[in-house]
Amino acid sequence: MRVARRARVATRSARSSRRDRRRRVARLRYRGADDLAWDDDDDAARVASLERRSKTPLRVDARAGEAGAREEVRRDDGREGGAARATRGDGRATLRSSAREFVASEAMAALGVPTTRALCVAATNDGVTRATASASGYRLEAGGVLTRVSTRGGLVRFGSFEWPASRGDDEGVRALADYVVECSGAFGEDARRAVGAVDYGGFLRAVARKTGALAAKWQCVGFVHGVLNTDNMSVLGMTLDYGPYGFMEAFDYDYVSNASDDTGMYSYAKQPSAVRWNVERLCDAFARVAPRGARAEALRAYDEAFEETTYAAYTAKFGVRVHDATSYGDVVARFHRALQRGRFDFTRSHRLLGAFATCVSARGEAMTAPALCVEMFAQISGEQGRDWASVAAADPALVAMIEDFGASYADAILNDDALGRDATARRSTQDSSNPAVVPRNHILARVIADGCDADDWRSARAFIDALATPFEDPTDAAFARPATDAELARHGRLSCSS
Fold first, then answer.
1. Cα dist. 241→21, 105, 109, 202 in Å?
2. Which tens digit of pLDDT belongs to each residue from 282-339?
């Protein structure tokens, strides 16, 4: 018996020695920036140590998807990572905030923006205390747990690499990169220099490209994440960890969705730079692993992907070719300056571009375009609850700015027509690129309150159904209505637990 036992031990030892590093960490699982768990027998002590520190079991698992695909599933009740320490709170999620993430992730998927998905939301029996502006100062909220689903490797964050790098564990950085490349299937040959070997410089470039494209797509739908630390950035370029996010309504370059962001660090205008800063921190984590020059190449890849994705998106949204700084400035930048000055609704203003372009093309001349453009903005202003006549009388410069954009945009449309562009095809592309419905905060507040406070989720389900087809006008027009100034003042900025 003793000899047989020794033989088995020797066999296991030989098998272990034959494993390469990728095999040994094939089931590396992430649970937050402070808690990397290794699901290998050789690292059982590390897992036990992490569980003792976090005082909770590691909560990441993987399951087989269709056609052999692998997906990761994670339960999120707000306690993972350093949430409690970062916010000086209890680190727990409310049902209200969990429902907001469910809605946002499904809406982003329908908009074509890479994102993790929400499998379900469940209420807990535990109450969660939250501060309010009421006289009592606090309210008791229902707790919530959201089950998040991702492509395998998508729940590995930039911060996941900072953890081992900060401890000088270069082997851990390599192992985690190997795992992501092997299990996700999202990098193709970009991150491989040979069969079975990972090119860590190529890995950084690929992550940077995915991240640059993601940031551009956020900007083009008016999405502001709200909390862009390295823990909230997926290495697969997916939107992750929806907290105090917001879809910008009244256009404002300085729009901030997070009520705690007093300095505007993550404003709409600064968001691309904040994301790029995170790419720099990821490069720092690979400083001793990737080849020299990898950092500069990765940042160049980010910039190029951001620019290319931005130009492609606005070409579709405006129905005319936007391919360089000049064409962007002549059309997109002029449009956004008018939106900024008049605080016009971002989503609704872009949605009406298709009708404007169709009308200009049908008329075949640009002389009436400035007046037509003023009519378009007058309609948007009215939908926002404002009196356009008073707005125009109080700010003649705004009217001039709108007319200037209308003339410039009409010239671009007619030049495009002269090259043989089909107006019907243009309108179809524009309408399928400019959504009619997005998760507006004032609508979310109403439908989620119905569910959380009255246990009536019918309006929330109807809103989610509308968001599933965002490029179609909703049956209930209220789901596409811009916020009034009063609603913006009340719901424009949110806390992490809203």
1. 30, 9, 14, 26
2. 999 999 999 999 999 999 999 999 999 999 999 999 999 999 999 999 999 999 999 9
Active site (annotated) includes residue 126: no
Per-residue pLDDT reduced to its tens digit, 366-392: 999 999 999 999 999 999 999 999 999
**If pLDDT is split at 50, 70 and 90, which confidence band does 78 have?**
low
Q: In this structure, what token pair is assigned to residue 268?
A: 């709409």
The answer to whether the CB of 330 falls within 8 A of the CB of 408 is yes
Q: Rounded to the nearest 10 degrees, how much is the dihedral formed by the CA atoms of 341, 347, 348, 352?
A: 100
pTM higher than 0.85 for the full model? no
Of 35, 76, 199, 231, catalytic: 231
- Asked if residues 359 and 423 have their Cβ atoms less than 8 Å apart, the reply is no
Confidence at residue 70, expressed as pLDDT on a 0 to 100 scale:
54
Q: In 3-state terms, the chain is what percent helix, strand and coil (to 5)?
A: 55, 15, 30
Q: What DSSP assignment string belongs to 359-373? A: HHHHHT-STTHHHHH
The full DSSP string for 223-245 is: EE-S--SGGG-BTTS-B---SS-
Strand 192-194 versus strand 246-247 pairing type: unpaired
Backbone torsions φ then ψ of 194, nearest 5 degrees: -165, 165
What does 463-490 look like in DSSP terms, one character per residue? Answer: HHHHHTSTTS--SSGGGGPPPPHHHHHH
88 — alpha (psi -120 to 50), left (phi > 0) or beta? left
pLDDT in tens, 102-115: 999 999 999 999 99
Contact 61, 73 (CB under 8 A): yes
Q: Which amino acid is at 394?
A: A
Strand 223-224 relative to strand 28-30: parallel, antiparallel, unpaired?
unpaired
From 229, 137, 237, 175, select the one nearest 28 (Cα to Cα). Answer: 175
Q: Which pLDDT does position 134 carry in this prediction?
A: 57
**CA atoms of 342 and 298, how far apart (whole Å):** 38
